[in-house]
Design goal:
By secondary structure, the chain is α+β, with helices and mostly antiparallel strands. It has one domain. Helices cover 45% and strands 28% of the residues. It has 3 helices and 4 strands. The chain has helices spanning 2-14, 49-57, 64-75, and strands at residues 17-22, 25-30, 38-43, 59-61. A 4-stranded antiparallel β-sheet has the order 3-2-1-4. A hairpin with a 7-residue loop joins strand 2 and strand 3 (38-43).
Length: 76
Amino acid sequence: MRNKLKKYACVALLLYWVLGAWKGYVAIFEKGQEEPRQIFPYSVASLPLADQEALEQGITVRTEQQLQQLLEDYLS
């Protein structure tokens, strides 16, 4: 049982998303993917410069709760 839990914990650490920019719009990417999983109709250019730069670099997101919070911050 203990090895099984350890295996799941390791897999969970490898899964994450990247919140970033795609052709000028806010987008979500899955780990290691160049094509976005979802694109939002929200222009990166409408955000403050620091946020624009962060999205251009890509923001690593490890939990759905963290992803939801960032989306609310950027899309509201």
